[in-house]
Amino acid sequence: MIDINFKTGMHIQKIGNDTFYIDKTMIIDELIDKDGIREKEVVLVTRPRRFGKSVALQTIDYFFNIESKDRACEFFSDKKIAKTDKIKFLGTRPIIYLDFKNPGVTDFNELLQSIIYTFDDEIDKFILNPNIDDITKKELLEIKENIYKDEPTANIVQDLLSYFIDLYYYTYKIEPIVLIDEYDSFVLEMLNHEDIDKVISFYRTFFGRALKGNRNLHFAVLAGVTELTKNSVFSAMNNVYISNVLDSPNMPFTSYFGFTQDEIDPYIKLLDLESERERLKNYFDGYKIGGLELYNPDSISKTFDELKLNKNTPLSFKWVETGSQNLLTHILEKRFDKKQLSEELLSLIDKKEIEISIDKEFNIDKLNKEEAFYTFLLYAGYLTATKKENDKAAVVIPNVEVQDEIIRLTTRILNDGSDENYIDTKKAFSTLNIPDMEKQTKKLFKDVYHYDIKNDEKTYRNSLAVLINLLGVYTVKTEQNVSNGRLDIALIPFKSENRRSVLLELKVARTEKDIEKKHKEALEQIKRKEYVTYFNENQQKDMIALTVVFNGYDVSIKDVSDVIY
Description:
This is AAA-ATPase-like domain-containing protein. The chain has 565 residues and is of the alpha/beta class.
């Protein structure tokens, strides 16, 4: 077994020679010039969850932190940044590192308490510092006493960051660096809460007082999922450089978040997974940012950890439950009030590209509208942009991992019993009641493709596969290779379900008169190309074979199970 640690969530200080690590230390080169002067005053990096933002901030912290210089020297000695003149700035700055990740905040007071906790170590560190004068220590003790009251006031908490920047500066006689991870997590947690306006107002003051034109600050780097800009958090600041998922090629910071194919290929070779390269690429690659095509780092790392033990491990969704997912579930529930799937969402699940308008101002009212809804999906990593022009972007689902998750979320929402059409469709396909299958398929195609439907077999096949996938009844396989050809759709029941496997062969009839002819063609194709051999022996015992013929919105389905051999 390959002795490499692929575990995720490890702090950069614990990374060793046996750890899966992609060198992204040249991010430091983007932050300072040859004389150590900051290139940008405030940098905001927005990327999807689990995309390497925390590791990037830890890298900046470990490099510059004056308190970890000795340990950092060894770590950075063989890294890319060590080959530049900027290595001389290692261990030269005090760091204020704040992590705002705190899921489960339910109101504004809890938010204030959570932010207070992030400053707790900073307060204790200065109180215990022998070089701090008694007056300052007394002041810190008073601050600690005040902020730990049952209901701390926003007036006290919103000045904490500004206060500590000044305190670091006067203590160390040099400007500190501020690093804030998941800066927007509290906003995402509370977008659907009545206190959201208080949260935005607090953020605006908290960041504005600390980061706008602060002569005692070297620079700040904030990382999160969304941009809280324009009329919200950074409305009064004109010194924020933003790197986001819509970055153009060669812009700063684009290559430091996510893994390229070239970066992971050595590990694919080391793990003897060359035969799985395309499968891994289809499942986890596909994010297009700054002219690069990128893997989700967390997903591929966890997958390597599984595959090093067993190469036959099925690929699976690796994201954990996050505030973004909870919010997405809420938004999808709102968008499904019309009792039908949106044409755009079905098209996306169907691997099609759609054009969206970008609206970065996220609030719960706007997120129920198309522009902000799809922009949120883009920023949260459920979509990726293939091209951008002004405030328009063409977007697709990046890979199979995300496609499976959107199907899972959508299925869970539709399966709550409130959508009669969905329940009727699920029942029809669960029982394989052919008249009901015809009725429900026709209805859905009319609802979704109410403007136009392309009269080609691929469109029908993909759309029908998406429909069945969303029912949560079968594992759906399309265009599967068999010895003599490619069958259209195979439905494999979940292990816990006592259902029959299903073979579907599709045809398109140009006129109503051609329908019977197309059924015969489909049957002959099933027999001639021996599509039943795709199914294993147990699946073949009670398998049902259906020929499906589309004519516009009409659909005709026949059971040919008794005549396919």
